[in-house]
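Predict the assembly for these two chains.
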Amino acid sequence: MTATPILELRGIDKSFGPVQVLHDVAFSVYPGEVTALVGDNGAGKSTLVKCIGGIHPIDAGEYFIEGEPVHVHSPRDAAGYGVEIVYQDLALCDNLDIVQNMFLGRERKSGLVLDEATMEEMAAKTLDGLSVRTVQSIRQLVSSLSGGQRQTVAIAKAVLWNSKIVILDEPTAALGVAQTAQVLELVRRLADNGLAVVLISHNMNDVFAVSDRIAALYLGRMAAQLKTSDITHAQIVELITSGRSGDLGLQNGNGAKA
Amino acid sequence: MTTTESPAAPSRPDPVLRPHPLRRTLDVIGVQNLSLIIALIALCAVIGSQNTNFFLVSNIKTIGTTVSIVGIIAVVQTVVMLLGGLDISVGSAAGLTSVASAMVFTSASSAALGILVGLLVGIGVGLLNGMVIVYGRVNAVIATLATYAALRGLANLISNGRAQGYTGTDSTFIFLAQGSVLGIPILIWVLIVVALLVHLMLRYTDIGRNIYATGGNPTAARLAGINLNRYVIGCYILAGFVAAIAGILLTARTGSGQPTSGSQGLELQSITAAALGGVALQGGKGGITGTVIAVLMLGVLQNGLTILNVNSFWQDIAQGALLVVAVVIQQRRGKLRAYGLPR
């Protein structure tokens, strides 16, 4: 693929009080690809994502967007660089409808009042662009949607902003089989549209189904970043559980890379 | 409305349909508001059938003017509740501003100055509430319960517990209390203007949208980049400001600054009206229309009980019962699970 990653992190450290959660993490994401971020519970996946999204400030390390060093201090900064995160706990408001949720915090206005017509049109166009055919009305309350539909709305919300990088934090964790297939199909389509997609997942089937690259975190360290085609199911599981697999991964247990 | 799960549904040509126009109209009025209007009409019919004086224009004007002070407070209570908070201190704030405006008026013999000081006191109270809640991270109920007691004490302290000043001869205060424009009393105009402005803000501006979002899911609102602290403080300042307007109207109506009389119980009445009007205690659901209809209903009920010579102590009981009934209806409608059941 292309030489320059759209998002690149180098040497990221992050501590919460005495607990160091991320050690010298490097991470690269390429446009048009799905990069799966895997790791056991507590490996630091969510923390890494929150650092990328500007929710947690990083203690040390460098953050590059399209090769340019940048500083991200808040979710607004991240959004400004085209980074959108779809959170695990679904940051949607049940009491609002689909359009209202998609424009939450960034409403279109004409003068003082909300420009509902434009927002409705843009939302419809975005959902069409993603070939979403499962919602009946974009004025439906989000509380009336199924888990898969909610996830779809959350993803569409992230895509609406001409974002370049979409990060999905366990989008299929709470979904059934059909809904999972539907969301994964959507994830693949995002990458095919040229976006860089980061998919956090515990489900190896999902990871192998859609990803182009896999990055495995182990106890706050990046164990390996590989092309999905160069690695087997068993090797990834080994990387997740012990941080190494043969020549791959961290060479001395908890220590730094050899 | 039903939802379809199948990933591919080629049978439907247009995936993003607008609801039927009739459905939209019903959505605008709201099923709940419709049932409130029906209840209001029924209530009027029952009281009117017992005593036809109820339908006199003078009596309807009385209802309107009595309701206006509770009404404007209920409107801002609605805003605070939509945000997921509660303001118990509104009654005490109104009492304090009533006393303060009358005392400043007496010593400076300027109605404008008295009103200005009253409004500033209200803004200060709202700011205090908001700061305690946001920066002290105190639960809204506790924070405003504390200011409820403290402000009442302060009002009694500066007034020695007695009515202050005499505004009954001042033209501005007389105009506020008894004047009318286009045949409608000023007090009712104040309610109409406050309710309309707040309604427009909630429905057609991003401020209103963000208030609903914050009440519905504060985490989502914060992640979407909404500055929650600013909204919380802003809403409590609005509540304090409007409570001050209520306090000034109270001074005008009674002709003097009242530390407790007239303002006591406004918090209960406003919360009852908002809850009855369909504002969810959890925040994010409801609107001004429902609250205003509920305020009218409470006014009619109170007036009816007086006309029918019911012991006034019963009115307190009726009010308390109504609050519980309103919340019960709301919880049933919202299909809330039994206490303690997992979601």
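The beta strands of chain B are 180-181, 184-185. Residues 1-16 of chain B have pLDDT under 50 and may be disordered.
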